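Components:
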Amino acid sequence: MAKIPPLSGFPELLPQQRIVEQHILDTVRRLFELHGFSSLETRAVEPLDQLLRKGEMDKEVYLLRRLHAVDDEEGAAADQLGLHFDLTVPLARYVLQNAGHLDFPYRRYQIQKVWRGERPQEGRYREFTQADIDIIGRDTLAFHHEVEVAVVMAEVFAALPIPPAVIKVNNRKLAEGFFRGAGATDPDAALRAIDNLDKIGPDRVAALLVEDAGLDAAGARLCLELATITGSDATLSDRVQALGVEHPLLTEGLAELVAVVAAVNARRPQAVLADLKIARGLDYYTGTVFETELVGYESLGSICSGGRYDALASDGKVTFPGVGISLGVSRLLVPLLAGGRLTASRSVPSCVLVAVSDEGERAASEQVADALRARGISTEVAPSAAKFGKQIRHADRRGIPYVWFAASEGSDHSVKDIRSGDQVPADPYGWNPPAADLHPTVTMEPRPPATETTSEEPPQ
Amino acid sequence: MAKIPPLSGFPELLPQQRIVEQHILDTVRRLFELHGFSSLETRAVEPLDQLLRKGEMDKEVYLLRRLHAVDDEEGAAADQLGLHFDLTVPLARYVLQNAGHLDFPYRRYQIQKVWRGERPQEGRYREFTQADIDIIGRDTLAFHHEVEVAVVMAEVFAALPIPPAVIKVNNRKLAEGFFRGAGATDPDAALRAIDNLDKIGPDRVAALLVEDAGLDAAGARLCLELATITGSDATLSDRVQALGVEHPLLTEGLAELVAVVAAVNARRPQAVLADLKIARGLDYYTGTVFETELVGYESLGSICSGGRYDALASDGKVTFPGVGISLGVSRLLVPLLAGGRLTASRSVPSCVLVAVSDEGERAASEQVADALRARGISTEVAPSAAKFGKQIRHADRRGIPYVWFAASEGSDHSVKDIRSGDQVPADPYGWNPPAADLHPTVTMEPRPPATETTSEEPPQ
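Structure:
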């Protein structure tokens, strides 16, 4: 049979890499739950009309069709099922569907795969994992939750073995108010123009601001100056106001931005930074917006984005405002794994391999293993009664730190640390490994290793 | 907007039910890892030719199509992608693709959703979660692993808050050898006939055994007698041999069956039972086969099945034998949730709600929350500085057991157990809840409650 090629855009991990991913997902979940977010899993599919309900026909949705579907069975296009491309559309549908069974504010986290039929490229996959938190109110939602979601993500970044991440903040009201105050007739067009600043440069953006957003040259210059403002200190507000633009929305949005930056940094120093260039997402959110760059990996784009939406969902009578933030786990993880920067201390959960001296003595080895497992020590028994040297190599290849030799006539139980070679007598009902050896550990290399070997790349 | 209907066959859970599911999945994972199985996640999609490679054109596969696919872009049918319908086909593909990076025997567990476009009915869903363990050898795989996978699942069943489960065992070699020894010319036809025993009764099975499998009336009677044999004691072998049928495969298979039952029950008393009526899966597996019934929920069918396959995968040069067993998590869980038999003590992870006396004092409450979280106590802060009675009701509705009142002028910190009403002084940097309150607990009702309320059913 020919070698099976990987499927582009669908990354898969080797066992050791998966242990890194599990460590990251476990850490994220633990912190989300410490902050009282409850878990939600939604089905992978949504009706196509839900997926496209914001008119986003440009989304690359994967549609489903049953292999043995009878003609016409799938019904009209609106009834067709597609794989969800984010976790926000399913959340909105779930909240509307189950509002009567939920307590508001509803604080949920959701860690799931999502699918997009996009062209695969760096940081972009067709299947990837997201980890979202959202807080959904019924009719109203207090502003302090906009601070809260950033605090939680800042804690996640501090706990993960990853390069530093800076959460950048902007505010839709500030931007829209400023553009209007500077004379824009189409503030959405101004947002789109500013969003292209890094790509096409200030001159062409200025032209777009005039042509598309209805600004004059002076107004366009002010908008470009606004986009240069960044920082988290007390001068932020003064620097915006010094541009001399006035609008009630600007005043409101600036106050919110200053409040978010101050409140988050008071609780998690230097976690967030105002960046008034951020425009992506401002057409979608209604207040605070977040984007996050990973230092040294800026080309990946934002690894964690979100913001405030005044109407996540509405059933016509009740409106559900929300604020959320979404961590792109795959976008963050896969490049760090591929570059060999994140490694696990072993490829299996096992802390101990119990050797087997003879197939007739396997039961004795299994008894030792059960005694160790009863104290939470992950243990496997050697698959064959090969020479001990071979059994030790079996452990070594997987990074299992300890090999146990069961008592036999003439010798007591003993356990060998195969890294140091030290072998000591031990009681299967009492021995414990050092805490650092109990579970695999995950380490980030301070910088990319000089040589990258093929085997460290995800097999995709 | 009209009420959103659930999607048949795609069960979704309410927050409290999801906590039950998390408890079950966490328990399963913990036990798999204690036995040294490493985690694998494969992509959700496989090329259609992989999904159908065993000629299983009857599978109800969901095919994928990109919404904006260009004509002809999706290529030939063989290149089409479909959602996986089990975790075995992806495992076989993954092992072939990554054999050079894996250590054999490769022990992996995999807990993932799978999809089948089947007609939804009791115990059958279109999207459901499976939890599989498999041990894959390279060229060879020792028999003791057939014992091992049953021992691990028996431990899982003992640890889960579910009704008793009995793993039933049969053996492909035993059945085939017996059928051949009794005169069958088509032992697969005999398997299919016996598989219908419960549905169509012994008389019609006897007719099929004669018509389709080439047995005479006496041979058919022997096969039906074999199917009545069940048990786990020392007489098992004698009772089979007493039927007087002889065949080398029968001898080999009977020895394996007796060995599996004895070895598993020696380690986990009464965990398995030989049942020679089991035929399903025997056409697929090559040695031991497992099926599991949940006592009181027999109509669900097998909730945990598996067996030995001498060739899970092969690249033409190397063959990979395997043994595996698969727990149908959704099949087990959804009916127990719907019947109200499994409940969680709260609907959120939070152990403590920190009250807010005044919006101006929110920072003080957040400081308490951070101090508690630093010791692993899941905590949320009240969303508004409502009257304390309302804040306590906020906790009560979610099942949060403790409400914390931060120190203010004239009063120290105190914490109230809202179940007992007891309120005591407490230090945010030292207080710990009783261990039983730290996380939500999951309980199985001894029998289905007399009345089932709508809200306890999964919203689907």
